[in-house]
Amino acid sequence: MRRITRIATVGLASAALALSATACGGKKSSDTASSTESAGQKSAAIAYDIGGRGDQSFNDAAYAGLEKAEKDLKIKGAEAEPTEGESEADKVQRLTELARKGNNPVIGVGFAYAPAIKKVAAKFPNTTFGLIDDTSVTDKNIANLVFNEEQGSYLAGVAAAKASKSGTVGFIGGVEVPLIKKFEAGFAQGVKDTNPNAKVLSTYLSQPPDFSGFAKPDLGKAAAKGQLDGGADVVYSAAGLAGSGAIEATATAGKWAIGVDSDQYNQAGLAKYKDKILTSVTKDVSGAVYNLIKSVQDGKPQTGEVRYGLDTNGVGLAPSNPEYKNMAEVIAAVEKAKADIIAKKINVKTAP
User: Fold this and answer.
1) End-to-end Cα distance, the chain
2) What φ, ψ does residue 129 adopt, rounded to 5°?
3) 26 falls in which pLDDT band (50, 70, 90)?
4) CA distance linking residue 203 with residue 185, whole number of Å
5) Distance (Å, rounded) from C-alpha 24 to C-alpha 159?
6) Contact 58, 65 (CB under 8 A)
């Protein structure tokens, strides 16, 4: 596995989180990229979103898909990291470099890559480009890998409402953009449908074009503390690396945290707080990345919208925490909601 650029240093909420992010990265700063054609081996690449690999969440899920493809499909994998406060030109250059080296597919992790992929895909018509979490850019060689985040978040809302003793729960979004508002909408609807008297506190860490709300755990930690002070005893964060700070603050206070994207109960960097991670809203980003790479290797590359929802287990709730498994009433409510969503008895909103 080769990493092409390194992310600028981001302040972490604690030394433990800093060490965990470094450990998850798994590469030293001396790593350099080499031509994928030198060994005549097929290759695929991913360009990470804000926070980079080691975020215990979204980017790490994408990496897991690339890592699985390396092992199962015997391909070479390449990775490229973002830099803090980068320009659109930086993204274009990153994707261009990956494509020029012969990687196929080249996958942009996150909606922020949409404009850059639109430009670069047109210059490399024989390369398949994957764009996660965005459908605004289309072409014959672009696969839009998207998820019904609102559905998984609805289930989290059901679980939160059932697990809450105070009747107040919290939602923390990294950046106030339409994608993250899908998480908020589904969560709030699930809470209210389960307990109409419940109160949902919502906080966003930054506003576009400031995307630091996905990258700074200290912001997530402060937001969670504010919601806990406001009476919340369950806090759900959809904030990338910043969500680690929210989990830390919530768990330290002895309240329930709900993770996102990856099964955060099983993330090594969050092991200290795992007992208070009730569940996580999972998105099968790893599966989406792997499936796209395999489709290219099979000579039948995916293109257009490829959607993952509850009906295909593309989103869901992770049941890893033994305490969650023992909450029979919570699980029953979640399973009923899941069945009703799949049966279209419940229409989950995509905006608050």
Assistant:
1) 40
2) -115, 130
3) very low
4) 13
5) 29
6) no
Residue pointed to by tokens 């690449």:
45
Q: Are 250 and 276 in contact (CB under 8 A)?
A: yes
Structure tokens at 217: 């755990």
Q: Are the beta carbons of 34 and 112 closer than 8 angstroms?
A: no
Using DSSP's 3-state secondary structure scheme, residue 306 falls into strand
pLDDT in tens, 256-292: 999 999 999 999 999 999 999 999 999 999 999 999 9
| 178: its two tokens | 């339409």
Q: Which tokens go with 278?
A: 């009730």
Secondary structure (DSSP) of 198-243: -EEEEEEEE-TT--GGGT-HHHHHHHHHHHHHTT-SEEEEE-TTHH
As a whole number of angstroms, the distance between CA 279 and CA 316 comes to 10
- Residues with Cβ < 8 Å from 168, sequence gap 6 or more? 198, 199, 200, 201, 230, 231, 232, 233
Task: Give the CA angle between residues 253, 257, 258 to the nearest 5°.
Answer: 175
Alpha helices in the chain (DSSP H): 15-25, 58-73, 88-100, 114-123, 149-163, 178-194, 217-229, 242-252, 285-297, 322-325, 328-342
Main-chain dihedrals φ then ψ at residue 338, nearest 5 degrees: -60, -50
Residue with token string 């926070």? 51
Rounded CA-CA distance 160/339 in Å is 18
Separation CA 248–CA 88 (nearest Å): 33
The angle formed by the CA atoms of residues 257, 263 and 264, to the nearest 5 degrees, is: 45
pTM (2 d.p.): 0.86
